[in-house]
Amino acid sequence: MRHALSLLVVPFVALAALAGCSSDDDADDAQASQLSAAQRAELDAQIAELKEKVRQLELRIAADEGFKQALERELDKAKAALKAAEDKLAAEDYAGAVAELAAATKALADLQAAWDALPGSVTLEAKFAFGAADLQLDTPYELSTGKTFTFSEVRYWLSNVKLTVAGGATFTVPNAYYLVEVMQQQNLSNGATGTHTLPANRRESVVIGGVPSGSYTGVEFAVGVDPVRNDNLALGGGELHVLKNMTSDNGWMWFTSYIFSKVRGSYAQGDDEPIAVAWETGANENYRVISKTFSAPVKVGAGVDTKVSLRADVKKLFTDLDAEATPTIKAAQAAERTTLANNWANAFELVGATGQ
Amino acid sequence: MIRPEAPRRRSFVVLLVSATSACVLGACASEAIVAARETGGAAEPPPPPVAAPPIPSAPATPAPPEPPAHFPPLPEVPDNPTTGPGFALGRRLFYDARLSRTGTVSCATCHEQAHAFTVPEALPARGVTQEPLARHAPSLVNLAWADSGLFWDGGSKNLESLALAPLTHVDEMGREGELDAMMGAIAADAAYPRMFEAAFGAEGVTVGNVMRALAQFQRALFSAGSRWDAWRLGQSAPWSADEELGRDVFARDCARCHTPGLFTDAGFHNNGLDASFGDDPEAPRRGRGRVTFSADDVGKYRTPTLRNVAVTAPYMHDGRFATLETVVAHYRTGMVDSPSLDPGFRREGAPPGIAMSDAEARALLSFLDLLTDPALGLDPRYANPFLVSP
Questions:
Q1: Bridge partners, residue A165, by sequence
Q2: Are residues B241 and B169 part of one domain?
Q3: What is the pLDDT of residues A293-343, one digit of tens each?
C-alpha cells in the first residue's frame, strides 16, 4: 500500500493519508465506516475530475489516428481502474478505492506525458499586404512615385522552413516547399489540345505538422528553391512541381530553374495607357533566406495551437525598382532580378508568434 | 503503335530499314554490330537482341548499356541511376511522338540514331510548327560525362531538367501549358504504366519520372567504337601516313579543347565565328552570355565532341559550316576577333587562327575520319522500339 501511495500525485496525498489510516489491519472496518460525508464527497469529486480528464484525452486521441490505438489501451486501463474505484467506493472499501484511484492516476499521468511528447503543428502565415492594408487584387495602390499599381498575381515558393529550438538547436521541416499565392484564374494552354487552367486562389498560410514538442524562439524560411532542387527539376519535393506555371517559361526556357517569385499587374500613370508589369525572380543567385526571432518563446506540441504570423508587404518590392523603366524582369534582367530578390527578402515582417 | 518518323536522307533510310528487317527476322543486327565492334576494338559482349517476340510471362529487362572501359569513370547520378527498366522506358519515350502537341514529333525527330543523334540540317524545321529552330541539334553521344551544362550555351544543368525545354518549346514539341495533356496520353497507353512501375515503383507515371527516364536513356548513349578507340586499345591495323600526321596536328592544334577520349573539354569557348553579338541579352547569338549574363561569356559555346564528326555535318551551334573542310578553313583563315575570343587563337602580328599547312589540313581530315563509330547507327539497343517490336 505504501509503495502504491508513493506514486500518487499531489492532489491525492491527503486522500492517500486518509486511506492509509483505513487500511490498518486491526481497525479496518470501524475506521473506514467513519469516513465523513465531506471526505466521501472529496473522493467523488476526484473521480469526477479524472473522468473529465479521460474524456478530454479521448477527444484528443480521436484526432490523432497514428497514436490512437496505443493510447486507447492506456486509457482503457485508467477507465477500468476508475470503474473499480467507484465500485469499491460504493461497497465502502475505501482502501481499495484509493488504490484503484492511484492506479488510474498513474495511467493518466503516463498517458499525459506520452501525449506531451507528441509532435505538434505550426501554422506559418504570411499575409499579403500593401503597406498597412491587406493586399487585394484588382485594387489600385499608390506607390511612392504617386502613380498606382494594380496587382493581378503574386506568387512565390516559400521553402526550407526551420524552427529554432530554445537553446539554439534547429528543427528543419522536411520537404518544406510551399507555393504561396494570390491570383486570378490562369489559363495555361496555348489553345491547341489542352484546357489546363490554374484556379483563382489566395493561399497565405501553411500548416507544418510533425514538429517535435518543445519551446521555439524563431523561424527561418526562404523565398525561392535551394540549388539542389532548383538544379534538377525532376527531383521535386513538397509542392514543387513543373506543372504549376512556376518553372521554365518564356524567358527562362533555356535555363534550368524554377521561377522563384512572380508579380503581375499594371502600372498606371495618370490618363496614359497602363503599363503591363511582369516581374520574376529565379536562378540560384536569387535564392533568399529570411529569419525572424520571436519576442517570446512559443510552445509546440499536441493540442497546442501554435501560429507564426508574418506579413509580406509587397509595397517593399518596389524599392529601387521603376515599373515604368523596367516593366519586365525575367532571366535576362540580371541586375534588376537581384534588386527584386533583395526586396523580397526585406518584404517580410513578423507580426507575432503564439502557442500555448 | 506510333507511326515512325520518316528519316529524311535516303541513304539512312536504307540503313534503318536493313537494320530493322534484320531484327524482325530474328537474327538481329547484333552480329553485324559484333563484327563492327571487333574491328573497332570495343571489348564488349554482344548486346542483347531487342526484337524479342512477345512472351506470356514478363521477360527480364536487359541491363542498360555499359560505359566503355577505356573512358573516364562514369559520373554517378545518385538521384537517378540508370537501370534496365529506366533505360527501356526512356528509350520508348524518346521515340514516342505522342509527347508532342501534334503527335508527330519525338525527341528522335531531331536526334536520329543514324546521324549520331543529330540531324543533317543546319537549323532543323522538324518541330510541330515546322519553323526553323535557333540552334543546330547537337549530337547526344557520351553525355554522361557532360557535367558543365547542356545545350550549346550550357543553360540546362542536367539531362533530367533539359527535357522540359524541347517539350514545351512552341516550335519543337509544343507542350507549353499542356504537359498535363501529354501525361494523359502517356498514362492512357497500354504499356507505359507497367513500364513506369518497373522503373520507378509505385510513384508511377509522373512528369518527374518522364524526365528521369529520358535522362537515363540519353545518359547511356555511348559511342566508343571508332578506329581511334581500336588504336587506343592497341587493337588496330596500322594507320596511313596521313592519319599519323593528322594525329600529330590534332594533338598540336585541336586537343586543347577537343580533349582526346571524349573529344571535348566540356568547356565554353569563343572560336572566332562572329565579331559582334548584339545587345539583346536574351538573343540566342549571345551564346553562353545568354545564360551567365556575363560579358566574358558572350559568343561562347560548349565544345562539341568530335566523335562521329565526319558524319554529323553541318557544324557549329548554328550549323553554318556544311563540311569539315570549311571548318578547318575557318580555323586556318576565317576567324574574327572579339573581346571574348579564346586567347589560345590569338597570334602576334597575325589575325587569330591556327597556322597549318595544306598537307597538315588534309591529314587532319583523315584523322577526323577515324573518329567515326560505324556501329552506333545500327546498335539495336538504341533503335526505335516502335519499329522493332509491337
A1: A216
A2: no
A3: 999 999 998 888 899 999 999 999 999 999 999 999 988 888 999 999 999
CA gyration radius, chain A: 30
When pLDDT is averaged across residues A70-76 and rounded to a whole number, the result is 80
C-alpha cell at A306: 501554435
| Contact assignment for B211 to A233 by CB distance below 8 Å | yes
Compute CA B65 distance to the chain's CA centroid, rounded to the nearest angstrom.
16
Q: Which CATH number belongs to the domain containing residue B259 in this structure?
A: 1.10.760.10
Q: Can you give the pLDDT at residue B284?
A: 79
Q: What is the DSSP letter of A240?
A: B
Q: Give which of B277, B273, B318, B271 is closest to B294, Cα–Cα.
A: B277
Count of domains observed in chain B: 2
H or E, element range at B289: helix B289-292
Quick: pLDDT tens for B174-201. 988 888 889 999 999 999 999 999 999 9
Beta-strand ranges (E) seen in chain B are: 268-269, 301-302
Instruction: Check if the beta carbon of residue A293 is closer than 8 Å to that of residue A217.
Output: yes
Residues of A in contact with B212 (CB under 8 A): 234
In order of A191, B257, B334, the CA distances from B296 in angstroms are: 40, 18, 22
* Summary mean pLDDT of chain A: 84
In a domain, B350, yes or no: yes
Confidence of residue A73 (pLDDT cuts 50, 70, 90): confident
**pLDDT at residue B50, rounded to an integer:** 53
Contact B282 A231 (CB under 8 A): no
- Give the C-alpha separation, A68 to A75, whole Å: 10
The predicted structure's pLDDT at residue A114 = 79
Cell output for B153 = 550555351
Q: Report the mean per-residue pLDDT for chain B.
A: 86
Per-residue pLDDT, A203: 96
Q: How many CB pairs under 8 A join A and B?
A: 97
Residues in chain A with CB shorter than 8 Å from the CB of B282 are 251, 331-332
CB A150 within 8 A of CB A268: yes
**CA angle at residue B165 from B159 to B167, to 5 degrees?**
100
Q: In the structure, what pLDDT confidence band is assigned to residue A145 with cuts at 50, 70 and 90? A: confident
Question: Mean per-residue pLDDT for B85-113?
Answer: 97
Residue B208: inside a domain, yes or no? yes
| DSSP state letter for B334 | I
Mean pLDDT across B95-120: 96
Is residue B194, in this structure, part of any structural domain at all? yes
Residue B262 scores a pLDDT above 60:
yes
Domain membership of residue B46 as a residue range: 10-224+375-388
Residues B148, B196, single domain; the answer is yes
| DSSP codes, B1-47 | -PPPPPPS-HHHHHHHHHHHHHHHTSS-THHHHHHHHHHHT---PPP
pLDDT, residue A67, reads 65
Would you say residue B142 lies in a domain? yes
- Cis ω before B281 (30° cut-off from 0): no
Instruction: Answer whether A241 sits within 8 Å of B207, measured CB to CB.
Output: yes
Residue A61: per-residue pLDDT: 67
User: How far off is chain A from B351, nearest CA to CA, in Å?
Assistant: 33
Close Cβ partners of A211 (under 8 Å, ≥ 6 residues apart)? A119, A120, A121, A122, A163, A171, A173, A300, A306
Please tell me the distance from the alpha carbon of residue A280 to that of residue A156, in angstroms, as a whole number: 9
Average pLDDT over residues B226-248: 92
Q: In terms of domains, do B204 and B249 share one?
A: no
A117 C-beta neighbours (distance < 10 Å), count = 12
Q: Which three cell numbers stand for residue B132?
A: 526553323
Contacts of B177 in chain A (CB under 8 A): 187-190, 194, 196, 245
Cell numbers found for residue A349: 515582417
Which of B330, B375, B336, B376 is closest to B356 using CA atoms?
B330
